[in-house]
Write a structure and sequence with these properties.
This protein has helices spanning about 5-10, 20, 55-60, 75-90, 160-165, 225, 235-255, 275-285, 310-325, 340-355, 365-375, 380-385, 390, 395-405, 435-445, 470-480, 485-495, 525-530, 555-560, 565-580, 605; strands at about 35-45, 110-120, 125-135, 145-150, 170-175, 185, 190-195, 200, 220, 265-275, 295, 420-425, 430, 455-460, 505-510, 535-540, 590. The chain is an alpha/beta fold and about 600 residues long. The strands form four sheets. It has a ten-stranded mixed sheet with strand order 1-2-3-5-4-10-11-15-16-17, sandwiched between helices. Strands 13-12-14 form a three-stranded antiparallel sheet, with no helix packed on it. A two-stranded antiparallel ribbon has the order 6-9. The N and C termini lie far apart (about 55 Å).
Length: about 600
Amino acid sequence: MSQSLLRAACGLFVGLSLASCASGPASKSVEPSMFSNELRSEHRGSDDLLTAGLGLAGLRSMAPPAFADATAPTVDELRRRAMWGSWRGIADLAPGGGYGELFGSLQSVPGREYSAFARLPGAKQPHRVLAQVPDNFDTAKRCVLVAPASGSRGIYGAVSVAAAWGLPKGCAVVYTDKGAGSDYYDLDAQMGVRANGTVGALGDVDDLAFVPDAPVNAAGVAFKHAHSKDNPEADWGRHVKQAAEFALLALEQAYPQAAPFTFDNTRIIAVGISNGGGAVLRAAELEGDWLDAVVAGEPSVYSSAPGARALYDYTTEAALLMPCAQLHMSNLPQPPMTAALQAGAAVRCATLAAEGVISGATLAAQAKSAYDLMLSKGWTDASLRAGALSTGFDLWRAIAATYASAYGRYGVGEHPCGFNFAAQNPDFSPRAATAVERAAWISDGSGIPPGASVGLLDSKVALPDLGYAGLKCLRGLWDGQGEDAKRVQAGIQATHAGLPRKGLPVMVVHGADDGLIPPAFSSAPYAAAAKAAGREVSYWKVQNVQHFDGFLGLPDYGSRYLPLLPYVYEALDRVQARLDKGTALPADAVIATTPRAGKPLTAENLAMPK
């Protein structure tokens, strides 16, 4: 192909590798064959990299951006709606919350996007990677932020965490869904999500992001985190590094005259929150000097340090005990602890008492017993109180069911506790998904059902305590002795985090009131062990901060709690100063904040360390 034809084809960027589209040499540290199904797009004018042209007003809209044809949305419509959901799922954008005024940026950033499927050696399924290269990228001061999605979110899941800080500063940003994401697969229709986000039928297209290994007669919905058979969490650090490698290739295509882009001449900072925070800490332990700094917010990290607990351990414990324990507590944040949920919690107390897990002849005594038991396991009043959100939204069960399947590398229909996933009728019975529902999965799905019209099906549901048998089964996979338990336990052990590489600057930031990933089980023991081993780790524990900034728009939560994101951005500023000027990382701190109590957020509320 002539150079002129090659440049024209690369402008469309369909079916060509990044290496073939770059006129300069590919980075010697990257193997282009790791990537496939590459796409490129430009985002300028009424569109941009940071908010897809929505701006603050569009992101604040209670209704998602509409599709002109709900059964066949365009690529641009899907991207815009995915941006809307990703921003609102992570950041507090409500008036008075301070975003875009006191911290963060929503300025329009024009540039280009490069996306692909990436596959680790030996993996059954790919993970998505997507690089954003702003027009203001400074080739003389090369900077890339690597941002794994939080939770199981799709490819834009970390846009508010990384892009809001990096893009306005001229840094490129690259994301990975770290082997999860919202590439759901319709088993009834044999249809999945294509590389560009639209829906395609198996056999008609060759670019589906996820095709499960499933029986011919399987029904319902499969998704990558639960059904890839890869145990993606064990490879989160490698996903992060592979995303960084993809960014170098994307930069070589964007700026061929400045090639090569390598780890030696390009600054790489990894940043993530929640499970994304755990992913960047796993990347920190990898050998080599490819990574320059790490910022981890509220990380889900399982270390070998004293006091550390696995996510699956405390999640299944909370799923069983927390509803009852919270009945002992007053002044829980509202919503979602409704009267119906409180009634269900009372049933749970009775079940636990009958099983001998807790004691007490009255509901009050049973709730007190469950509360005391959780405190003895390391939970705090603050984490139990903020955990009301996860109880109310049945988040504990959803996480446990998905992670059990992932850790055990189970396929469709193989869940050891009988959980499955499908669209549901009003009576919760399974049904086939519609074309409208399928079309929105990539933009609306969180990566873990229920949500986006896909429900969680529990085959063990029984009165009087509907979910107890399924939860007891899930807990048994943690502390049981059977073959399924051993299989899941082996998967959990594969997620153990090691120490960060010597000389690597690491900042860890965590809310003291986190009710989903309590710092006592995760970040605190990790940071203590790393510092004891002489690693360069700075640890901020922030009072009056829980796990979900996205729920601070609820008046009671906004009144009680402060956002985590400003501390993540500040930590990025501190590691940047460390790299630019040799400034020492800040000392460890317990940051004493002041809730805003319904008033607009101020710098005094945040009490940012000097």
